[in-house]
């Protein structure tokens, strides 16, 4: 019978974006055993149809849960969560935490009543986002922009590629150039890749704006769902599992080490 304290928390994304969710979770629960799963064979999710995401994500999560027996699964991806969260919950018999755009805190904090949602193309077109905007930001102008280029950029930066300020600047311009954009004071980072390049986004901002993401809230949610279940005395070496093992995975080793992940496996 395996030691229940060793049961990991599973983080799932299409690529490295979920590391922005793993980071705050490790900070809050330093002894947490971690399995980080990246569906890099399916990357990028943001350019897929809803049917493709629904056909892929619940089945993959099912295989991962069977192999690693996690205590909790975290869909550390806005695209997968806004499309497939209900299907994943239906497929798994463990608690599932989703990552959805932080529109509520953005609307609460906005003074100008113009907020931006920067995500993937797939996320920004979701009814899930319409509903969040209607529920929490009914008196706000909610600008949306999808940037596949910024997702690819975050992937490249974690593999050591040089900075290119034009990429974050273009992504922000996708919001700012819309009517009302010059008054936008809150930007929801509605793709988990984007907090990884948040400093660069901040540097590219032509006027003051606050960037928000769900990382800290998800960390608290994991702690809450874990309740009194024990953690090991110290975190074991984290595992990263990729749906395709290739040289671009090797280039991630230094970044993964920074998140306590030393072992790389294929699914
Ligand atoms: N990190 C993902 C998200 O939060 C998706 C990036 C992609 O694969 O397009 O939406």
Can you put this structure into words, describing what you see?
By secondary structure, the protein is of the alpha/beta class. It folds into two domains: 4-99 and 216-266, Rossmann fold (3-Layer(aba) Sandwich); 103-213, 3-Layer(aba) Sandwich (Rossmann fold). The chain is built from twelve helices and ten strands. It has helices spanning 19-28, 50-68, 78-91, 103-109, 121-124, 127-136, 148-158, 166-176, 198-204, 215-226, 247-250, 253-257, and strands spanning 9-13, 34-38, 72-75, 96-97, 114-119, 141-146, 186-190, 210-212, 238-242, 261-266. The strands form two sheets. It has a six-stranded parallel sheet with strand order 4-3-1-2-9-10, sandwiched between helices. The protein has a four-stranded parallel sheet with strand order 6-5-7-8, sandwiched between helices. Helix 1 packs across helix 10, helix 2 packs across helix 3 and helix 4 (103-109) runs parallel beside helix 6. The longest helix has 19 residues, at 50-68. The protein is globular and about 60 Å long. D-glutamic acid is lined by residues 13-15, 17, 43-46, 77-79, 120, 123, 151, 191-193.
Key terms:
267 residues; alpha/beta; Rossmann fold; 2 domains; binds D-glutamic acid
Question: What does the secondary structure layout of this molecule look like, with pairings?
Answer:
Layout lengths: L8 E5 L5 H10 L5 E5 L11 H19 L3 E4 L2 H14 L4 E2 L5 H7 L4 E6 L1 H4 L2 H10 L4 E6 L1 H11 L7 H11 L9 E5 L7 H7 L5 E3 L2 H12 L11 E5 L4 H4 L2 H5 L3 E6 L1
Parallel strand pairs: 1-2, 1-3, 2-9, 3-4, 5-6, 5-7, 7-8, 9-10
The protein binds D-glutamic acid.
